[in-house]
Amino acid sequence: MSSISPRAGKPATQDMLIDVARLEREYLARRPDVDVPAERVSFGTSGHRGSSLAGSFNEAHILAITQAICEHRRAHAIDGPLYLGKDTHALSAPAQRTALEVLAANGVDTIIQRADGVTPTPVISRAILAYNRGRREHLADGIVVTPSHNPPPDGGFKYNPPNGGPADSDVTRSVQDRANELLRAGNSGARRLTLEAARATGRIHEEDLVGPYVDDLANVVDMGAIRGAGLALGVDPLGGASVGYWEPINARYGLDIDVVNPRVDPTFGFMTVDHDGQIRMDCSSPYAMARLVSLKDRYRLAFANDPDSDRHGIVTPSVGLMNPNHYLAVAIRYLLAHRPRWPARAAVGKTLVSSSMIDRVVRDLGRELYEVPVGFKWFVAGLFDGSCCFGGEESAGASFLRFDGGVWTTDKDGLIMDLLAAEITAVTGRDPGEHYRELAAKFGAPCYTRIDAAATPEQKARLAKLSPASVAAATLAGDKIEAKLTTAPGNGAAIGGLKVTTARGWFAARPSGTENIYKIYAESFVSDAHLAAIVREAQAMVDAALQETKK
């Protein structure tokens, strides 16, 4: 298990802050070396990410990716407007400018938040879906410039097709490969105008994206119940894109939400430091969330979001910062009991590294579980057509259907997950932490962990291709192994690793997409000691399987 930095949970110091001017200079000046794998375009589960200081997120990358997206649009007859959002990371604004120059040169009508504003990921997803509702042609799509909760030096760039959700692997692979072709050719195939010339084309449209999203919230969360309960609520946007949404929500619905930290600063110098000593806006981390957790007794409920607001962190007087797995289980049980117009056959989606508490809750309610590999993209189709009423990840990201069973977003929405926690508290009189205690009393209190183990690129490649037969063991931590999975039960997609389950616990191992490590997720419904045994045996099984496949 990774060691905890002595700085963890303490305020960031001046020596930790980024030099924003240098970051922007390197964005413009540095030319990536396509022969270096780390400097190529690489779409992970959430788009391309990197830093200008490392040669992995520079103007050349954004020119190439945006041109590749424009070519993808032409090849698939996507000719409606493109919604372009950005978060508050230092590299997001220059990357948005570059994208605008390429989009206009390619004749794309682009919609951005007026007055150079920032826009949460779920707002872009909802806007795409709202525009496309009832249309069969001239469909909209979108781009969000964000590295999510990553540290301040990072940038990110992700594409959402007309279904509003994260692009699937076929699309991202095509865009990635074309972008790297363009990079290798020095971007000679990328069209571009100056920003002034781009604006002169009339292709850049500034609109209010805040109001339509805020007005529509009443169709997905019971805002009247929250108002009627008179809850004193606190929110910390963590300097991110949701900062301009909470006061409009207060005004529109008559709520009492106190924005405890309204500051926006690309150095994120107001943060407390994460577990590894880095500034990271991770709203599921007790270290990054230390300031809001210290205010837990001041509010009936408090919550936070990461910079692009697709993740949530829920702080309750009863338990402090909730484990994301715990809140997902509570949210699912509540929603299934309080959304009578949802299709009875709609499944509940979870990733296979999320807690089995969710399995027990869903089974107890007689609903179908849809278990998929890591990545929110696997929930997009189900949320879009209503066959999946909820999709959630253990990393604190989720979305769910409107009251009428229609699609809300097909990307993660941290704001509605925050407001749902307030709805749960208002309607039931108990906060989500109290609800989880009830679940634990009924189903058992699981212990959950995630650890990282060193792995070479060759070992990572072998891990991604393991078969169930690669694991010879018949038991795990004293219990009979019930399943050895290399594909997800919900959709049969490859998990890029291995999951082993018993009646009282499980582990999953999968390679990291960005580091020379593999990740082990594990859970026990017995004890911490049982969990430790699962982890020990998991590492031994994986190591043995990797050695066996090498022969």
Question: What's this model, at a glance?
Answer:
34% of the residues lie in helices and 20% in strands. By secondary structure, it is α/β, with parallel strands linked by helices.
List the helices and strands and how they pair.
Layout: H1 20-29, E1 43-44, E2 47-51, H2 59-75, E3 82-86, H3 92-105, E4 110-113, H4 121-132, E5 141-145, E6 154-160, H5 169-184, H6 195-200, E7 204-207, H7 210-216, H8 223-229, E8 232-236, H9 246-253, E9 256-259, H10 290-293, E10 301-305, E11 312-316, E12 320-321, H11 324-338, E13 347-351, H12 357-364, E14 369-372, H13 380-385, E15 388-393, E16 397-400, H14 414-428, H15 432-443, E17 447-454, H16 457-464, E18 475-476, E19 479-480, E20 483-487, E21 494-501, E22 505-511, E23 517-524, H17 528-550
Parallel strand pairs: 3-4, 3-5, 4-7, 8-9, 8-10, 13-14, 13-15
Antiparallel strand pairs: 1-2, 2-6, 5-6, 10-11, 11-12, 15-16, 17-23, 18-19, 20-21, 21-22, 22-23
Helix pairs in contact: 2-3, 2-5, 8-14, 11-12, 11-15
Walk me through the structure.
By secondary structure, the chain is α/β, with parallel strands linked by helices. It is 34% helix and 20% strand. The protein has 17 helices and 23 strands. The strands form five sheets. The chain has a seven-stranded mixed sheet, sandwiched between helices. It starts with 19 loop residues before the first helix and ends with a helix. The mean pLDDT is 95.
